[in-house]
Structure formats: C-alpha cells, structure tokens
Design a protein that fits this description.
Distance between the termini: 13 Å
CATH topology of the largest domain: Rossmann fold
CATH superfamily of the largest domain: Vaccinia Virus protein VP39
Strand order of the largest sheet: 6-5-4-7-8-10-9
Shape: globular
Strand content: 15-25%
Structural class: alpha/beta
Number of helices: 13
Oligomer: single chain
CATH class of the largest domain: Alpha Beta
Radius of gyration: 23 Å
Length: 466
C-alpha cells in the first residue's frame, strides 16, 4: 500500500481505489460473519492490506452498524459481524487469484540446531545489528521454508542463483553441495557474506537494471528472486530471473498479495503474461508463503495511531515457474539503463547512503528530512517508494531526506565515518550548516529523537507527485 499510518482518509479515493476498498470491506464482512476476531487476527488474513486502511474500514463498518466492537480492560478489542450484514456476493470475488494453489511444508532434513548456528553466523557477518536493516528480511518460518524448497528443487552439481536475496543465498550455500551464485547491487553486503560462504559460492555485484554477462545467461537450474515490490520494479526482476534460468529450470519469485494496493491484481495478470513471453509456465503458487519481519521503526509508527502490531503482517505469494522454451527476453519499458550511484558510509550499526547523480552538488551541505511531525524516521518502507525519486540521503534505519551540497557533504561523511575530528573552520559562522545538520540528523535520528528537538526544516515533494 502507498498509505502512511497517520495519513489515512486525507484524500478522496479514486474509482479504482473505491472498488479496491469495496473488496477489502466485503472480505472483512466475510471473515466476521462466522467468528469474532481481534484486529491482528483480521490483519493476518487480509492479504497484505495496509493496517491503517484496515483499521479505517473497520471503524467505518462499525459506524454503519455492519459490525460490532467488543472490548474490555483486560484484552484487545474484538470485532464481530452483525446478523444479515454479510458481504455483497457480486463484489466479493477474488480477483487475480491463480487456479493452481499449493503450499508445501515438506521438510528437507535441515536440523534446527544447524540452521540456528548458520543464522547466527550470518547475523554476525552483516554490517548491521539486525538482518532487517540489510535486506527486507523474511520471518524465521519463511526463511526455513524457502531454504527447504530450494534444497528440494536444486539438483546436485547444478548451479543455483539468488537475486536480491543474498542472506538467504549465503545460508543456502552452507547446506547445499551445489554451486551458488549470489547477485546483488549492495557490495558492502556481498563483502560481508564472503566471509561465511564456501569457496564454491560466487558473489557478484550487479545492478538489476543492467543486462547480465553472457556467461550467466540460462546457466542455472533454480533461481530465487525476492524483488522490490514497486510496480515498475517487479517486471525488471522477473525478466532478470528468467535470463539466468536454464531450460527446464525453476524460477521462484515472491509477488505481492491481492490487497497490497488497488491495482495489484491487474499487475499480477500482466506479470503472468510477461512470464509466458519469457518461455515460463506457472507450475505452483503458494499463497501467503513469504512472510516478512516488521522493522522496529514501522512498528513504532503504527503505535502512534493506536495500531499495535503483534506479529508480521506483510506477506507475499510465492510463484514457481518452469522454463519450457527459450522464450523472448523482454525489454521492460520506462526504466533507466542503470541505478543511480549511491555512496555508502558505516556509522556503528547503521549504514548511510548518499546519492551522487550530479544533482545538488555545489553549495553548503543541507539535509531536509522527509519527516512527519514527531518522527525521526520515515514510518513505512511500503510508502517509501513514492518519495524515492526525491530522496538523496537514506539510512538503513529508514531515515530519509533530500541532501543539498552533496560534494561537501560527501567529504564530511567520509571524515565522520573515519571518526576524524572537525577543525574549527568547519563550524564557522560563514558555513554554519556544515556540522550541525550532519551531526544531528545522522546520529540522533538513528536514535529516534523527535524532529522538534533537532530544529531541522522539513521538505516535501510537490503535491502532484505524492
């Protein structure tokens, strides 16, 4: 969803959004027609619907006396349906749901203790204290399920590839005798993983917007892709995954569930058509099989609007394709030829990324956060995508901002990351913006100091692009 927790209901929905909300509303009524559920129980069964929108629709249904809210001082509120207030059957069909649905819990013999040790080794190698800051991290149950699935699909001596899922690929390499290739744009992450992977593992820095080297094409027996869920990004990663796949091989990829955003079901149908053009046939769908950890900053943001997330709520559907013919490698339109260059700096257990695309290079450095009042980090990674085109400084703790004077800012960040001491001239009155915004924003924002305490000016993108 492209909604931020405390922005719900601020603009009138479009026709597409109204239809989408109607589907969610009828889904809620169907869930509550035979049972009484807490908010978190409803959320877990609501196909990746944004918690803020879900709560908003529950309140609207209660106001319309379609459902009742039962609560007491000893437990969370519970929701129940009213007699005769079931869903409209015409609008409640499930759009975009694939026909062949399966969910495999087959164990491939990974011992729990061995997996625990492998995950500890991984966590110790990563640049941040928690894996969720390095990549959008799978829940422990999903992590194990995907490992077992990949072991089941991978033939001995046949290479396996992991695109945008380096941590999972690293752990897989510890349990498999197959050659493993891990492809990721994050060279710092790849360097960290190198220390724990066996020698038969290739770690390749690669920008998914660029074509692969010809030696990588159609050379992998199984490929796992965990793409970003932006509507223009998923097709790119689907194409790249198909490029890596040998004939007869399997492509495993996570797609957003059917209530993720208003247009998602049409997007999913387009992805299936694209897969057919690439020579892929859909073999299996595991609904809700990919569950993602909720980062602390997002959990805290929802608390501010009265939503207490007790367990992971983001889920994807796992699609498993097989290449049956060579297919046509599609050109994905409306995409740049390469990702922008981002410099990286490590401060303790937090990484800072500065965009260097030639824009806003000159002048004194200034940092204009994309904060909401009272928050020192951007509250939702799902909503970050709408601001990504404007962002030029982000951290792995989800602080996000526009940076000006990037040439001088880059030099200052390098010195700060090496813990060099500023000279008195760096903080002189002629250039007062040099140290203060960097010092306050980069370090105190990671500790979640409210914006009012920082005295920083906010910046927001033009209204028509939000």
């Amino acid at each position: 969803m492209e909604l931020v927790a405390n922005n719900r209901g601020t603009k009138a929905p479009t026709g597409l959004e109204s239809a989408y909300r109607g589907h969610v509303r009828n889904h809620i009524l169907s869930l509550l027609s035979q049972q009484t559920l807490t908010f978190n129980q409803i959320l877990k069964q609501s196909y990746n619907c944004d918690p803020a929108l879900l709560l908003h629709l529950l309140e609207k249904l209660a106001d319309a006396r379609k459902i009742v809210i039962r609560s007491d001082v000893h437990s969370s509120a519970k929701y129940a349906g009213q007699t005769g207030s079931g869903p409209n059957s015409r609008s409640h069909k499930r759009p975009g749901t694939p026909q062949n649905v399966a969910f495999s819990e087959e164990s491939h013999g990974i011992q729990a203790d061995a997996l625990t040790e492998a995950n500890k080794e991984l966590a110790g190698a990563l640049p941040e204290a928690s894996p969720v800051f390095s990549q959008w991290w799978f829940s422990p149950s999903t992590h194990r399920r995907l490992l077992e699935l990949m072991l089941r699909l991978t033939a001995k001596t046949k290479p396996a590839a992991f695109l945008a899922s380096g941590g999972l690929g690293a752990v897989f390499s510890l349990f498999s005798k197959s050659p493993v290739r891990i492809l990721d744009i994050d060279h710092v992450l790849l360097h960290a993983l190198k220390g724990i992977c066996p020698k038969r593992t290739d770690l390749i820095e690669h920008d998914a917007l660029k074509p692969f080297h010809r030696l990588l094409l159609r050379s992998h027996h199984v490929v796992l892709v965990d793409p970003p869920w932006g509507m223009t990004q998923i097709p790119v990663f689907l194409v790249r995954g198909a490029e890596l796949l040998a004939e007869g091989g399997r492509l495993v990829i996570s797609f957003p569930q059917r209530f993720t955003r208003p247009n998602i079901n049409r997007e999913r149908q387009n992805l299936l058509r694209l897969a057919g053009q690439l020579g892929l046939v859909l073999k299996e769908v595991q609904l809700g099989a990919t569950e993602y950890t909720v980062p602390v900053f997002e959990r805290d943001a929802y608390k501010l609007v009265g939503i207490h997330l007790q367990e992971p709520w983001r889920r994807g559907d796992l699609f498993i394709f097989q290449r049956i013919r060579k297919g046509r490698i599609s050109t994905v339109t409306n995409q740049p030829t390469a990702s922008a260059k981002w410099e990286q700096y490590l401060f303790g257990a937090c990484r800072v990324f500065l965009k260097r695309d030639g824009e806003d290079e000159q002048g004194p450095p200034r940092i204009l956060p994309f904060w909401q009042p009272g928050l020192s980090v951007y509250p939702s990674t799902s909503s970050r995508s709408e601001l990504w085109n404007f962002a030029s400084l982000v951290t792995t703790h989800n602080a996000i901002a526009r940076a000006l004077g990037r040439a001088e800012l880059s030099r200052s960040l390098k010195r700060l990351s090496r813990r060099e001491v500023f000279s008195s001239g760096d903080c002189c009155e002629e250039n007062p913006g040099l140290r203060e915004p960097i010092d306050k924003y980069l370090f105190r924002s990671v500790c979640r100091v409210p914006v009012q305490a920082l005295g920083a000016k906010q910046w927001a993108p033009p209204k028509e692009t939000r």
